[in-house]
Amino acid sequence: MLQPEQTVDASTIRQRASRIGFWAAILTAVCAAAAFLLASTYAPARSGPFCMVELQESVEVCVTYPFTDVAEFVPMEYLWMYPALLLALAFVVLTISIHYTTDADRKIFSQIALSFATISAAAHSINYFIQLAVVQPSLLKGELDALVLWSQYNGHGIFIALEDLGYWTMGIAFLFIAFALARQKGLVRVIRIILIVSGVIATGGLIVLALIFGSDLEYIYEVLSIVVDWFTLIGVGVLLSLFFRRAAKES
Fold it and tell me: Is the pLDDT of residue 99 over 90?
């Protein structure tokens, strides 16, 4: 026999969202820190404008088109993509938690933020999963046909394009999350300021750099957006964990 539908009051919803948001914020900060640490340690610039030609046992470390002689760099230079993939998914959960703890009159902003966070996660999930599940084994097995467009070393390739899209839309999500948070003093104000500043840099940076470099943009914006977005998620992730813990107690 069907039971009558039970309603859940706003306080219970906010408390549940705060508990989930606390762990999502912690996971987001940890994943962002891990991705940055691994990328800065094991994934040097081997092509494009930031690659410095050096000699290691008489072999140039900068790779050039068609970017297929890179099997020796598997899996070390792909390790950072594992936490980056998890980061993209955690950011969606974090944004959902923010949406359900936002005041009713500001939910339009958190809903827009969630939409852009979802677009960002979709771009990164597809991008990183293809690198890990397709490109890595193909390089190791010598199956190199059609890999040039998917190579992370190709500044004009699909990988960089999807990263640009993912981190650009993440920057837009930052702005709308900031708008969704109530204008308060203290912790929330600090979170808002960080999100607005980083959101402006991440979104406006693509436009400015594209106008400056044009077809030579390559991965210049990608590096900027990664640094801005990852450091923002490390800092804001920690601050949001405090925000959610406080919200859970007040609910």
Answer: yes
Q: What are phi and psi of 56, to 5 degrees?
A: -120, 105
Residue 59 lies in a domain: yes
CA distance 74 to 108: 44
CB neighbours of 185 closer than 8 A, spacing ≥ 6?
none
Residue 62 dihedral angles phi and psi, to the nearest 5°: -80, 130
Contact criterion met (CB below 8 Å) for 29 and 248 = no
Number of structural domains found in the chain = 1
Q: What are phi and psi of 192, to 5 degrees?
A: -60, -45
Instruction: Categorize the per-residue pLDDT at 11 as very low, low, confident or very high, splitting at 50, 70 and 90.
Output: confident
Domain of 19?
Answer: 11-250
Q: Residue 4: pLDDT band by 50, 70, 90 thresholds?
A: very low
Domain-embedded: residue 161: yes
* Domain annotation covers residue 2: no
Tell me the C-alpha distance between 147 and 153, whole Å: 11
Q: What φ, ψ does residue 52 adopt, rounded to 5°?
A: -100, 120
Closest CA to 126 of 93, 150, 148, 154: 150
Per-residue model confidence (pLDDT) at position 249: 80
Residue 6 resides in a domain: no
3-class DSSP assignment, residue 79: coil
